[in-house]
Design goal:
Layout (H helix, E strand, L loop, with lengths): L2 E5 L11 H13 L2 E4 L20 H9 L3 E6 L15 E5 L12 H4 L4 E4 L2 H9 L5 E3 L20 E5 L8 H4 L2 H10 L3 E6 L5 H10 L6 E4 L5 H5 L4 E4 L12 H8 L4 E4 L5 H9 E4 L4 H13 L1 H8 L9 H12 L1
Length: 333
C-alpha cells in the first residue's frame, strides 16, 4: 500500500505548528507514502486562486500517482479542485474543518465519484447526508498522549488562558475571536493570556495588544515550543470562531488541553462543542460576542474545580493515534 498525500496549504513559518500537516506526516510515515504540496507559493500570507492549485505541476502529479494505490487530499472545505480531474487512482478527500451548511459543496457531482469523503464529527457527517452523499466516513484525529501527569497551576498563580491557534489572514483576527479575546482580557484584570503564534501577522498582533492595554498580561510565543510544557502554566485553553470552516473540526489545541486535564472554552460553531457541552468539559459560546466570551471565562474561573474533575473522564482513547491509523487503514483497503 502506498498513498500519495496532497497538501493544500503552504508550510508554516514555525515548524510543526500546523495540525493538518502533522496528521499527514503521521499517515505518510505509517503507510510509506509520498507527499506533494499543490500550492504554487511557500508564502502562507500570499493569496492564490485555489482553482489553479496543482496545475503548475501536473507532470509531477501524474508521475507520483503511478506509484500510489490511492490519492489522499486534505482541505478545509469540500471543493473539487480542477487538478483532481487528472487523477486516475481512487481519491480520499478529508474535510479538515467544520462544514458550513450555508456554503454547500463546490463540484457537487464530481464528489460522488470519489472513494471516500472523510469528516471528523457526526455533525459534519449529517451535513453530508443531507446533501445526498453516502460515500463518507468518520475519522477522529489522532493525538500523541503524554504520559506525564500535568498538575493544576498553583492557587497563587493568576488565572491563565492559552490560545494555541493563530490566524492565517488579517480577517481571522475577527473570525477566530482573537480581538474578542484581547478585549475580554482587558475587561478582566485578574487573568493572563499566553498566545502561541505561527510566525505570521505578529506586527498586527502587537498593535492590538498595545491598543487594548494588555501588554503586561499577554505573553506571545512565536517559535516552536513543547506545548505540553506551556499547558503546565495554563488553567484553560480557549479557541472560538464565528465560522466552522476556518477551524479544524476537532482542534488539536483543545484536544491536547482536555487530554492534559484542562477545561476549554470554545464556540457552538465548532463541532467539538458537541462533546464539550456547556459545563461538562468546559464552556461553549452560543454567540460570537465579547459579552459571551467574558461570561464563559468568568464561569470557567468560578467552576474550575468541578470542571477539572469532569475533564479527567474525557474519553481520550477515542483520539489515539492507533485508532486514527487503524481507521484510515480500513479506508485505504
Amino acid at each position: 500500500m502506498s498513498v500519495l498525500y496532497i497538501q493544500t496549504a503552504p508550510p508554516p513559518q514555525v515548524e510543526n505548528s500546523d495540525a493538518v500537516l502533522q496528521e499527514i506526516d503521521l499517515l505518510r510515515n505509517h503507510f510509506d507514502g509520498q507527499t506533494l504540496n499543490v500550492v504554487p507559493t511557500n508564502n502562507p500570507a500570499a493569496r492564490y486562486p485555489r482553482q489553479l492549485f496543482g496545475l503548475h505541476q501536473l507532470r509531477k502529479l501524474k508521475n507520483l500517482q503511478k506509484e500510489a494505490s490511492s490519492v489522499h487530499i486534505f482541505y478545509p472545505v469540500p471543493y473539487f479542485f480542477p487538478f483532481m480531474h487528472f487523477l486516475k487512482k481512487p481519491i480520499i478527500y478529508t474535510i479538515t474543518a467544520g462544514i458550513s451548511q450555508r456554503a454547500g459543496v463546490e463540484g457537487f457531482g464530481d464528489f460522488r465519484k470519489i472513494r471516500k469523503l472523510v469528516v471528523a464529527s457526526n455533525r459534519d457527517a449529517d451535513a453530508l447526508k443531507k446533501w445526498g452523499f453516502r460515500n463518507h466516513a468518520i475519522v477522529k484525529p489522532g493525538i500523541e498522549f503524554n504520559s506525564e501527569d500535568i498538575s493544576s497551576p498553583s492557587n497563587d498563580q493568576p488565572f491563565t488562558l492559552l490560545l494555541a491557534s493563530a490566524p492565517w489572514t488579517p480577517e481571522q483576527f475577527d473570525t477566530k475571536g482573537i480581538d474578542l479575546l484581547l478585549k475580554s482580557v482587558a475587561r478582566i484584570p485578574s487573568i493572563r493570556l499566553i498566545l502561541l503564534w505561527r510566525g505570521l501577522l505578529e506586527d498586527m498582533l502587537q498593535q492590538r495588544v498595545h491598543q487594548y492595554g494588555v501588554n503586561d498580561r499577554v505573553e506571545i510565543i512565536n517559535e516552536h515550543v513543547d506545548v505540553h510544557q506551556i499547558q503546565k502554566r495554563a488553567h484553560a485553553t480557549v479557541l472560538i470562531s464565528s465560522r466552522p470552516e476556518v477551524i479544524k473540526t476537532y482542534p488539536h489545541s483543545l484536544l491536547e488541553a482536555l487530554i492534559a486535564g484542562r477545561p476549554v472554552i470554545t464556540s457552538k460553531t465548532i463541532p467539538i462543542s458537541d462533546m464539550i457541552t456547556d459545563g461538562k468539559y468546559g464552556m461553549v459560546l452560543e454567540e460570537h460576542s465579547e459579552e459571551a466570551l467574558v461570561e464563559a471565562i468568568s464561569k470557567t474561573m468560578s467552576n474550575y474545580d468541578s470542571l477539572g474533575s469532569n475533564v479527567r473522564s474525557f474519553p481520550k482513547n477515542e483520539f489515539s493515534q492507533h485508532a486514527f491509523l487503524e481507521r484510515y487503514k480500513e479506508i485505504y483497503c
